[in-house]
Design brief:
Neuraminidase, 33 strands, mainly beta, about 375 residues, 2 domains, Immunoglobulin-like, 6-stranded mixed β-sheet, single chain
């Protein structure tokens, strides 16, 4: 009987692990030879095995930059740094072109859903280079920022809701009021060498990728240089987090995608050189979602991405009444009433990935965060 009970227990555990297991897929935008192809959106499994091309040059790619999945439409948006300035929409299963989500932009680069549920788009080559906003159905909203940022290619919000944009050729980070887009001046104006991606940490520090020097740098909440975290990653652009906090970083100099732990220690080449030419954006998502909640359209509601206490972006409180928190099995674990708190304390929950969800029309807008206790 004891043996039977043991077998039953093992069986239940196996079934549970199957039901709750994640089948992660990694999507990488490959800029190829920049203005010359071939270009692709490549797909890999969670171990870095190449699964093929989701979207190819012949599917309408022209110097692809960023990737946004639209779950409610089973579609994916790609920003193309082309003379036509197109954000194209494709079927997320076979990559077939559906339509242009937006066109006539000045070389769209980064795209990110903000705390207001709108899509923010950076421009590389427009004469004014202002940050644009779109509704998720493709309707143009406005030029959000009062001034432009030349060759803008990195974007994030701090816990107060203010917006930060990197300038590649200006080697600087500019700060904007997150409510009205007013220019608040240069946040960092020295010590950078072609900055691309940026993101904020728990304590307000800013991480900056320096494409030309091959370094990942940390600056404090006042914009002062703190330290070099990673060196030897020339052409660094594109990042994504695994559920355990590991970080993927694209390295354009050799076409690799490298994996680091949450303390920025090198682990391995996740994608070896030879498959990609110039990786410049990375998205990790569950390829067979357990629920729609799990793969909702990515947004920024809280900072940081990893930790056990998360500061709620003040803009989120303006546009939403509550945020729902789900675990990876799709179970609602907490509802955060935004009028009652500005900080969500997740220390009582087990370490791992969680999903912070707000409802925006027919879409579920989601931020993936990782609870990690140190």
């Amino acid at each position: 009987m004891k043996k039977i009970n043991t077998l039953v227990t093992i069986g239940i555990l196996l079934i549970t692990s199957i039901l709750y297991a994640q089948n992660l897929a990694v999507y990488v935008s490959d800029a190829g030879g920049f203005s010359n192809g071939p270009w692709q959106i490549a797909k890999f499994d969670e171990n870095g095995n190449f699964l093929g091309q989701l979207i190819r040059t012949e599917d309408g790619l022209v110097w692809p930059q960023d990737i946004i999945f639209l779950d409610s439409e089973e579609a994916v948006l790609i920003s193309n740094l082309s003379t036509d300035g197109i954000i194209s929409k494709h079927d997320w299963d076979d990559g077939d072109f559906i339509e242009n989500f937006a066109e006539g932009l000045g070389g769209p680069t980064r795209m990110k859903v903000g705390p207001d549920g709108l899509l923010y788009v950076l421009q590389w080559s427009n004469t004014n280079n202002k940050v644009l906003r779109y509704d998720l159905d493709g309707t143009f909203i406005d030029e959000f920022t009062a001034t432009g940022v030349q060759q803008s290619i990195g974007i994030d919000w701090d816990s107060s809701g203010d917006l930060y944009v990197s300038s590649y050729n200006g080697s600087s980070i500019r700060k904007f009021d997150g409510t009205n887009g007013d220019d608040l001046g240069l946040f960092i104006d020295s010590g950078l060498q072609g900055p691309t991606n940026i993101w904020f940490e728990a304590n307000g520090n800013l991480i900056v990728f320096n494409y030309n020097s091959g370094t990942v740098k940390r600056f404090d909440a006042a914009g002062n240089f703190v330290e070099d975290l990673i060196t030897g990653v020339n052409g660094c652009e594109g990042f994504a987090f695994f559920p355990n906090g590991d970080i993927l970083i694209g390295v354009g100099s050799d076409g690799s995608v490298r994996r680091y732990d949450s303390d920025f220690n090198f682990i391995e080449n996740f994608v070896e050189p030879g498959i990609l030419d110039t990786p410049n954006a990375i998205v990790i998502r569950d390829d067979i979602p357990l629920s729609v909640t799990e793969n909702g359209l990515s947004a920024v509601f809280v900072t940081p991405t990893i930790g056990n206490k998360f500061v709620i972006n003040r803009l989120a409180t303006t546009f939403f009444e509550a945020l729902e928190v789900y675990n990876t099995s799709g179970k609602l674990v907490e509802t955060i009433t935004l009028k009652e708190t500005t900080v969500w304390d997740a220390s009582k929950y087990a370490e791992g990935m969680y999903f912070i969800v707000a409802k925006q029309n027919s879409d579920k807008v989601t931020q993936k965060i990782i609870v990690k206790k140190k």
